[in-house]
Amino acid sequence: MAGGGDGQGGTSSSSHELSGRLEGILADREVPWARRASKAAMIELRLLAPIAAPAVVVYVLNNVLSISTQIFSGHLGNLELAASSLGNNGIQVFAYGLMLGMGSAVETLCGQAYGAHRYEMLGIYLQRSTILLVAVGVPLSVMYAFSEPILVFLGESPEIAKAAAVFVYGLIPQVFAYAANFPIQKFLQAQSIVAPSAYISAATLAVHLLLGWLVVYRLGMGLLGASLVLSLSWWIIAAAQFLYIVTSERCRRTWTGLSCRAFSGLPEFLKLSTASAVMLCLETWYFQILILIAGLLDNPQLALDSLTVCMTLAGWVFMISIGFNAAASVRVGNELGAGHPRAAAFSVVVVTALSFVITLAMAVVFLVFRDYLSYIFTEGETVARAVSDLCPLLATTLILNGIQPVLSGNMDWDARWHMHADAYLVLDHF
Which family does the UniProt entry place this protein in (predicted)? Predict the structure, then answer.
């Protein structure tokens, strides 16, 4: 079990001990399965909680940044809500899925390197990933700059497309914040260092809400101001996490400074990063497709407004599952690295069950308050009725998303572990 580097020797030792006990309990065939499962579940929860809780907080709070931005925009008017939805969910989510997926390669490689005590390689992988993601950010920025003609070409309303383009222009800096943030986030998660990211996200959210209110309502900068504040908030998160890495004793062995070695092995790293991005991109892009299709309906503003409310809530709950996905990836990687296959498989079962129970509870809550959900984002009884009608489908989506990301993430992790072993050896050579 990864302990988090220097300054965590006691924690690491305790985690190793618990991990060994967990494997031993699961391997003891003389004890009935029910007793073994109950004992193992208690141990797994002790190992999982310090990773899963902060990881869920990080992803949820980061998603709330986008949600709050849409709320600020929505209270400017229904057109602004539709525009921010089209820009945020129709354009920005493309970059989010691609960047997060490519950044996940760092989690695989850093997890292996950390388990093999090749601590210096973690910093190299972080830098390689950042270089690649910055390069990918350049064509994405060009796409953002031409968002209005792209949206019109796709059949969106010219009025909404024009307003959405203004919003998207302010998101161009966010693309490069993603390029810095996701490799840093995965670098820390591979070492089971998650809590600092949660504290940083919480503090940034408070700053974001204050700046958003000031810029949108007091300074009157509208959609452009809202998206610029969102970009600034993501840069604050990335910069604060990097500052933590370079100053913390916990990362002293894994971050040894900038290195020219980061520029070697880039083609192999690109291949692995691309493979890592495929599954997560498919999971996030379907949100984007739904939003784009909604803009083609007879009443695009109402369709976008109502679907925005549902998809935003679904995306928020989806982040809970993504947080469990990240925690499960750390647990599975650490157990496989320690030679504990039973514990790795059992961890997936426990995480999936937890995610399912939480998302089921959220689905029930949304159904109970189905008639009032839309008022969080915008005024208007028409939108409220449309959202209420969509809520049964929303609840079904939440329940399915409660288990799918965790399972697919771990299958993807296992595939990357086996399919890219040769790539890892090449990368490790550099």
Answer: Belongs to the multi antimicrobial extrusion (MATE) (TC 2.A.66.1) family.
> What's this model's pTM, rounded to 2 decimal places?
0.75
Question: Is 327 exposed, middle or buried (CB count within 10 Å of its CB: 0-12, 13-18, 19+)?
Answer: buried
Per the listing, tokens 């809590």 go with 195
Do the Cβ atoms of 284 and 93 come closer than 8 Å?
yes
Residues 162 and 152 sit within 8 Å (Cβ to Cβ): no
Q: How confident is the model at residue 145 (pLDDT cuts 50, 70, 90)?
A: very high
Buried b / exposed e over 238-268, threshold 16 CB at 10 Å, is bbbbbebbeebebbebbbeeeeeebeebbeb
Percent of all residues in the chain with a pLDDT value above 90, rounded to a whole number: 20
Q: Are 156 and 214 in contact (CB under 8 A)?
A: no
Q: Rg of the chain over CA atoms, in angstroms? A: 22
Segments making up each domain of the chain, as ranges: 34-429
Q: What is the mean pLDDT of residues 403-420?
A: 53
366 contacts 398 by C-beta, under 8 angstroms: yes
Q: CA 137, 239, 274, 100: dihedral to nearest 10 degrees?
A: -100
CA separation for the pair 236, 246 (Å, rounded): 16
